[in-house]
Amino acid sequence: MPHSGRGTPPFDETTIAAGETAVRILCPDAAVVRTSLIIGDGNSEHERVVHALAAKEREGALFTDDIRCPIHVADLASGLWKLAVSNEAGVFHLAGADALSRYSLGVLIARRDGISPSLLPAGRRADTRLPGALDVRIDSHATEDRLGIKLRGAR
């Protein structure tokens, strides 16, 4: 979820890791899926934030140093479906092929939607007190090979 520099992220790495461990212990046949920012065709949380920031309806900034691998909701749904109907177990990565900052993703969304990127405020998460890793790249190649899928990048 995009952060405006206020508040805290909904989950931290420790909580996520503990949840994954619990699932794998309690249900060894389970598939654990790691994903990234989810984008779509205009109504994802990140897309709404980009529009609100550009329209000055929301305070904050898109971070230039917060790197993620955004995935389109249709690609995520397709990968999840493929995984659900398989007998695969373990940890799977379903994320987009492009590693982008939240700001760079915002610029792509703005251009796609006819908004001037100059309206997007930029900031550095390292200058805030928000916890968590700045660079969370997820490599989905092994999952793509196992499931026979190809995940698009945000570009």
Blueprint of the fold:
Blueprint: H1 13-26, E1 31-35, E2 38-39, H2 45-54, E3 62-63, E4 67-68, E5 71-72, H3 73-84, E6 90-94, E7 100-101, H4 102-112, E8 122-123, H5 141-147
Parallel strand pairs: 1-6, 2-5, 3-8
Antiparallel strand pairs: 4-7
Helix pairs in contact: 2-4
Describe what this molecule looks like in 3D.
The chain has helices at residues 13-26, 45-54, 73-84, 102-112, 141-147; strands at residues 31-35, 38-39, 62-63, 67-68, 71-72, 90-94, 100-101, 122-123. With 155 residues, the chain is α/β, with parallel strands linked by helices. The chain has a single domain, classed as Rossmann fold. It has a two-stranded parallel ribbon. The chain has a two-stranded parallel ribbon with strand order 2-5.
CATH architecture: 3-Layer(aba) Sandwich
- Poorly predicted runs of 5 or more residues: 1-8
Distance between the termini: 19 Å
Overall domain count: 1
Tell me the structural class: alpha/beta
Q: What is the mean pLDDT?
A: 90
The global form is globular
CATH class: Alpha Beta
Question: Count of helical segments?
Answer: 5
Strand percentage: 5-15%
Order of helices and strands: HEEHEEEHEEHEH
Multimerization state: single chain
What helical percentage do the residues reach? Answer: 25-40%
Assign the CATH superfamily.
NAD(P)-binding Rossmann-like Domain
The overall strand count is 8
- Tell me the CATH topology: Rossmann fold
Gyration radius (Cα, Å) is 16 Å
Largest sheet strand order: 1-6
User: Biggest β-sheet, characterized?
Assistant: 2 strands, parallel
